[in-house]
Design goal:
Number of helices: 24
Distance between the termini: 63 Å
Strand content: under 5%
Radius of gyration: 21 Å
Shape: globular
Helix content: over 70%
Order of helices and strands: HHHHHHHHHHHHHHHHHHHHHHHH
Length: 444
């Protein structure tokens, strides 16, 4: 296997529990990160079948048999962990994170210096939103293997989540110097979007799509890169391009849940609520990720079907409990859900503040905290965090809407008008919950 193919495989494996780029606030396990091609790193030595040749269950069974026949085989433990992470990604089975954790723990116990196993350990910490520990683990990999592309990607990903954007940029730039591959390009696209340059982000994401096809990425891999490009198109208000890319994602990997959810979002933005409901019904039947369940409820609510909306909202607490039972910190996501739906507002503020203290530079955490404070009537403090959230110049319609509403409450009518205008200019259908409210507030 060539060095470039090993690099692509190594970088792709990092994302099984890793970055779900371009979504506003992500629950662990979805929307997805780049698919796992990490098995390619050992397949060439004849130790494993290619991950693309086996179903996930068969892949797990293969490596489980290897572990059972040789309990000292740390490579098999590592690949078994990769299979469980793959299952978690594909079907939203959060219990698979705990199974992956047990396999990784055994692999690292057998060989404390095995880089791939330590990388999976960092991925699990990332999936559970334990970014500080994940960064420390990534730095441990780098100390064992200076210049490791896997370590650089992990360091950049965790720096980014901790709001250390300059450090993330440095890590990704170093990564780009090693190879200009799709996993690297997608990371740079994420930073470009956060930095307020969506057209640059779209260009990089398009390069990632093209590169994945040229490199012969798996069907799911190609679907994932189309998905990221589609999300960027949606965030800039280009619904036609977003629909095209979500459809391309489904063409590459039929039945891809996250692309179906994307098409549902496009339909909702176009006020085709029946079409959105039909698609979301398929999505939550396959993967009841809280983000999608909440969106399903919001579309029901927009369609005037309040009882069905409440039924969806009521499911989220149970799903969240399952995430927490598997060690996944969902404080930021639940804070946003509570604030958006005027539920448990004291908890929303507490949870958002706790996340902000752990990730003090993260603009998404600052934005959610500002919104929770706004909903609880703490407008002055909300303003401070809103300004922090927008300090990079991020062109995110929802963040700008939040800033507009906060300024309006404080009587800053000119600033409120500017923020609301920019939100609607970027994407008139940016939110099923708030697009109409933004237009009404602007008119008033």
């Amino acid at each position: 296997m060539s060095n470039s193919r090993l690099l692509v495989a190594g970088l792709a494996l990092l994302a099984v529990a890793g970055i779900a780029v371009f979504s506003h606030v992500r629950f662990g396990g979805g929307p997805p990160a780049a698919p796992d091609n990490g098995t390619a790193t050992v397949a060439d030595a004849g130790n494993a079948p290619s991950g693309g040749m086996l179903s996930t269950d068969d892949f797990i069974s293969f490596w489980r048999r290897r572990v059972e026949s040789n309990p000292a085989d740390y490579i098999s433990d590592t690949e078994l962990a990769g299979g469980f992470l793959r299952r978690a990604r594909e079907i939203g089975d959060v219990d698979s994170y705990s199974r992956a954790d047990a396999a990784v723990e055994q692999a690292v116990k057998l060989n404390p210096k095995y880089e791939t196993a330590i990388s999976y350990e960092a991925n699990l910490q990332f999936a559970r939103h334990d970014f500080a520990d994940a960064l420390a683990t990534a730095q441990r990999i780098y100390s064992l293997n200076p210049g490791s592309a896997q370590a650089l990607a992990l360091i950049g990903d965790n720096d980014l989540e901790l709001g250390r954007y300059d450090e993330a940029q440095s890590a990704y730039d170093n990564l780009y110097g090693i190879a200009q591959t799709s996993p690297v390009l997608s990371r740079l696209a994420h930073l470009a979007e956060l930095g307020g340059d969506p057209q640059k982000a779209i260009g990089l994401a398009q390069q990632a799509v093209n590169g994945a096809a040229d490199a012969g990425a798996s069907a799911e891999g190609q679907a994932w890169y189309h998905l990221q490009l589609a999300n960027l198109d949606f965030n800039t208000g280009d619904l036609d391009s977003a629909q095209t890319q979500y459809s391309a994602s489904l063409e590459a990997f039929p039945g891809y849940v996250h692309a179906l959810a994307g098409l549902a979002k496009v339909n909702a933005a176009r006020r085709d609520y029946d079409g959105a409901i039909s698609l979301y019904r398929q999505v939550v039947a396959r993967q009841p990720i809280p983000e999608y369940v909440a969106a399903f409820g919001d579309v029901y609510r927009a369609a005037g079907r309040q009882q069905e909306a409440q039924q969806q909202y009521a499911l989220i607490g149970a799903i969240d409990a399952l995430y927490k039972a598997n060690g996944i910190n969902t404080d930021l996501q639940m804070a946003l859900f509570f604030a958006d739906h005027d539920l448990k507002l004291d908890d929303a503020v507490t949870q958002a503040r706790d996340v902000y203290l752990r990730q003090p530079g993260n603009v998404r955490a600052a934005d959610v905290l500002s919104w929770a404070l706004y909903k609880s009537g703490q407008y002055e403090e909300a303003m401070a965090y809103s300004q922090d959230a927008l300090r990079l110049g991020t062109r995110d319609a929802l963040m700008l809407f939040h800033a507009g509403m906060i300024n309006d409450k404080l009587g800053n009518r000119g600033a409120a008008r500017e923020y609301l205008s920019r939100a609607l200019e970027i994407n008139p259908g940016f939110s099923v919950l708030y697009a109409d409210q933004a237009a009404r507030s602007l008119d008033s």
